[in-house]
């Protein structure tokens, strides 16, 4: 057997085994305990009902009264505890006319599905190549894990989209705030970002 076949079999084994290592069906988060790298401990299955596995929060538009004109409604483990341990989550994105989801990143990958409106969505590769495109109703796009990405409503009606991410809690790091609104001394920020003090405000 040549090496490429060994590699393919090994890769299949690794991906298959990582998908089948769980010894339980589900692990609805028990918020009485702190979160760990693998998520929360599980609630007693005896106390669960089907309602623990459903979430009804994404039918209502998010509040877009903010400087970005964006409403984000999250179905993450903290609002939908059945996602705990399953490595996925969803969110609803309402972007008012002219609204922007500012450039940000997550720990994981994301897929967006546009339901209404017209947006420009994009991400920046680690070699600084920009990938961006106008998306309309029914279009989907991927933002690969950890890469900086954004969405802008360029249409004349509010945009509605749903996103799914492959973590029960993907995190959200808003790049501009991380660079300019952190607790570091201004002198250190200036050195590590090349931003001057005026640009920081
Ligand atoms: C969960 O179920 C166990 C066993 O059925 C019971 O002893 C316990 O009181 C329940 N806990 C809650 C929070 O309902
Ligand atoms: C939307 O958010 C703004 C700003 O936080 C707040 O003043 C307003 O009451 C909110 N509207 C609703 C309907 O919750």
TrEMBL record:
Disulfide bridge partners, by residue number? 27-42
Pfam families linked to this entry: Cupin_1 (PF00190)
Where does this protein reside within or beyond the cell? Answer: Secreted, Extracellular space, Apoplast
Q: Where does Mn(2+) bind?
A: 104, 106, 110, 149
Instruction: Name the domain of life.
Output: Eukaryota
Q: Name one GO molecular function term.
A: manganese ion binding
Provide the alphabetized UniProt keywords: Apoplast, Disulfide bond, Manganese, Metal-binding, Secreted, Signal
Any one Gene Ontology cellular component term annotated for this protein? apoplast
Signal peptide stretch: 1-19
- Residues holding oxalate: 106, 110
Start and end of every Cupin type-1 domain? 56-201
Family of the protein in this entry:
Belongs to the germin family.
Give the protein's recorded name: Germin-like protein
Q: To which species is this protein native?
A: Chenopodium quinoa
Lineage start = Eukaryota, Viridiplantae, Streptophyta, Embryophyta, Tracheophyta
């Amino acid at each position: 057997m040549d090496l490429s076949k060994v590699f393919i079999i090994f890769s299949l084994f690794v991906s298959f085994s990582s998908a089948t290592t769980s010894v339980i069906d589900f692990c609805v988060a028990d918020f009485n305990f702190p979160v760990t790298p693998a998520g929360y401990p599980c609630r007693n299955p005896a106390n669960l009902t089907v309602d623990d596995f459903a979430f009804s929060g994404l039918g209502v538009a998010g509040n877009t009264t903010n400087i970005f004109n964006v409403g984000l409604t999250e179905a993450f483990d903290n609002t939908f505890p059945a996602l705990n341990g399953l490595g996925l989550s969803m969110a609803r994105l309402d972007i008012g006319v002219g609204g922007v989801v500012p450039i940000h990143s997550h720990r994981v990958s994301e897929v967006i599905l546009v339901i209404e409106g017209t947006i420009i969505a994009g991400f920046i590769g680690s070699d600084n190549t920009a990938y961006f495109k106008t998306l309309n109703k029914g279009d989907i796009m991927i933002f690969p894990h950890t890469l900086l990405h954004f969405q802008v409503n360029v249409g004349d009606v509010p945009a509605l989209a749903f996103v799914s991410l492959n973590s029960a809690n993907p995190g959200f790091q808003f790049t501009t705030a991380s660079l300019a609104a952190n607790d570091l001394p201004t002198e250190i920020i200036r050195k590590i970002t090349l931003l001057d003090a005026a640009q920081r405000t």
